[in-house]
Amino acid sequence: MKVVTERLSASHPAASKGAPAALRELTLQIKAGEQIAVIGASGAGKTTLLHAIACALKPSAGSLLLDGVDPWTMSRGKLQQLRGKLYLAPQVPPLPPRQRVVTSLIAGKLPAMSFFRSLRSLFYPVDIAAANAALERFDLSEKLFERVDRLSGGERQRVGLARALLSPASLWLIDEPLSALDPSRAEMAIKTLTDEARARGVTLVATLHQVDTALKNFDRIIGLQNGVLEFDLPSGAVTPELLHALYRQHLAELNGPAPSVDLALEARAAATVVMHCR
Amino acid sequence: MSRLGWGLALLVICWPLLVATEFKPWTLFDAASRKSSWAFIKSFFPPVVNSEFMLLVLRETWRTVAIATAGITLGLLIAIPLTLLSTRVLSVSALSGRMAALPFVFRQTLRIVLIILRSVPELVWALIFVRVVGLGPTAGVIAIALTYGGMLGKVYAEILESGETHASVSLLRNGASRMQAFVYGLLPQNAAELTSYTVYRWECAIRSSVVLGFVGAGGLGQQMDNSMKMFNGGEVATMLLVFIALVALADAISAWLRRELG
Questions:
Q1: Taking burial as the number of CB atoms within 10 A of a residue's CB, which of A72, A278, B5, B125 is the most buried?
Q2: Is B74 exposed, middle or buried (0-12, 13-18, 19+ CB in 10 A)?
Q3: DSSP per-residue letters across chain A
Q4: B155 with A276: Cβ contact below 8 A
Q5: Torsion of the alpha carbons at B122, B126, B128 and B133, rounded to the nearest 10
Q6: A76 neighbourhood in chain B, CB within 8 Å
Q7: Which fold has domain A1-85+169-278?
Q8: How crowded is residue B118: how many other Cβ atoms within 10 Å of its Cβ?
């Protein structure tokens, strides 16, 4: 899928009115099948950019064209159909704890399935072979029938990435795919994503904290700082000076380990119980 | 000092409440009250246990359970569609900020319907339907179905909205339909809590169907009412004991079910 943004600005719906937009006046052209890494310090607007492209966030100014069409002029039904062609993988894998891994994976196929078929798949999974193949690419095939809450944080993240391989999308927007993985797993995961995207002709945009991984695996690097495009270069042309400038307020993030997200903590926040009696 | 102040303030506030509710516990102990309550309690002994009467009690107990179960089942037929239509977390337009105006009004209207269904007590519904369909269990079933339908629908929607919605929102964002997002995202996240609440409500329905019997909606309550009007304390005592056992049993079953599900 081809993506064009023209002076695109976007902010989080919960942001206060006076605050500057999380993403400001971004102009980009992404060709079909291209692979791009978005880098920048925390709070630079990387996630907002992905959300804006995924039609999860309406631009506050400027325009977005997906394959030449502005999605926000479409009817709601058509827009929802278009969303089936975009796959947004959030940083925290969206897997219900009591679901089996195979069901979580097939959930990636839902836009291409009728409701009846998806209902049947809850009892007898429709495409076990494809789910298993996707899991195998991430070295997890023995967990196919395991429950999600029996997986470690890193395993959950890989299941979340494997879901992309089942989706019918032609644009993958992957947010921090490596935040819970150790270096060797991270290398394997990013290689799987780029190889699969190339083989399918899928456009891939990933935000990354690991700058060297980004430089090694992606042809084109986009640097964001404070919501503004800092550079948009082939990875060969990204110099240490540019990186230093990009991270000048957050040098620790450039050199040190990526800030990790406590997946378990976010899961626990949901454990509130309501017991209404009347 | 401030504690004393608050205590005095509380007393001043409570006094009119006590007056309004004619709170005079000592009337329980004056001679006339003592005599009449003693006579009532004495009439409980011995409880009636002849086989004919026990058979009747058993049949009416079974009818009470049936009223509650049928009522809850019909209530689910009201509650589930209304929940799915009214819950905010399955809104597609709210994915990118605020819900659009028309869906918002639609959902709000359904919520008001649920609130109206729920806020009329089942006793009042039963009184209405006893006049419409006549004395008997049908009125009780309809009464429980309407009140509990509203109650279940509202609480289901609240459970879905207060739970973790990351999974279902992500599915919607990636192009799944609302119902797909429900069965793949919301349901696995909340199934245990939803079932546990339903079982708990079933237990409440058993208790309330006894009360409904007093206005003629069939079951154990209606028999109890008859015996009381005949001043047959022995029969009342038997039925009370059976009722206590029934509630304890329902309590145990629902506790066991909830433990198994949790």
A1: B125
A2: middle
A3: --EEEEEEEE--TTS-TTSPPSEEEEEEEE-TT-EEEEE-STTSSHHHHHHHHTTSS--SEEEEEETTB-GGGS-HHHHHHHHTTEEEE-SS----TTSBHHHHHHGGGGGGS-HHHHHHHHHS-TTHHHHHHHHHHTT-GGGTTSBGGGS-HHHHHHHHHHHHHHS--SEEEEE-TTTTS-HHHHHHHHHHHHHHHHHHT-EEEEE-S-HHHHHHH-SEEEEEETTEEEEEEEGGG--HHHHHHHTTT-HHHHHSPPPP--HHHHHHTT--------
A4: yes
A5: 140
A6: 92-93, 100
A7: Rossmann fold (3.40.50)
A8: 20
At residue A165's C-alpha, the angle toward residues A163 and A166, to 5°, is 70
Distance CA B221, CA B207 (A): 10
Residue intervals in chain A for CATH 3.40.50.300:
1-85+169-278
- Say yes or no for a CB contact (<8 Å) between B173 and A58: no
Nearest CA in chain A to B103: A76
ipTM of this complex: 0.87
What is the dihedral sign for C-alpha A108, A109, A115, A116? negative
| Structural domains of chain B, ranges and CATH numbers in brackets | 53-261 (1.10.3720.10)
Distance of CA A3 to the CA centre of its chain: 16
Q: Does A254 touch chain B (CB under 8 A)?
A: no
CB < 8 Å from A in window 159-198 of B: 159, 162-164, 166-167, 169-177, 179-180, 183-185, 188-189, 191-193, 197
> From first to last of its 278 residues, what are the pLDDT tens digits of chain A?
889 998 999 988 777 777 788 889 999 999 999 999 999 888 888 999 999 999 988 898 899 999 999 999 998 889 999 999 999 999 999 999 889 999 999 999 999 999 999 999 999 998 899 999 999 999 998 999 999 989 998 999 999 999 999 999 999 999 999 888 888 889 999 999 999 999 999 999 999 988 888 999 999 999 999 889 989 999 888 888 888 888 887 777 776 655 555 444 444 444 444 454 44
Edge-to-edge strand list for the sheet holding A3-10: A23-30, A3-10, A61-66
Whose CA is closest to B174, among A130, A89, A197?
A89
- Residues whose CB falls within 8 Å of the CB of residue A148, separated by 6 or more in sequence, listed in order: A95, A96, A97, A98, A99, A100, A101, A104, A156, A159
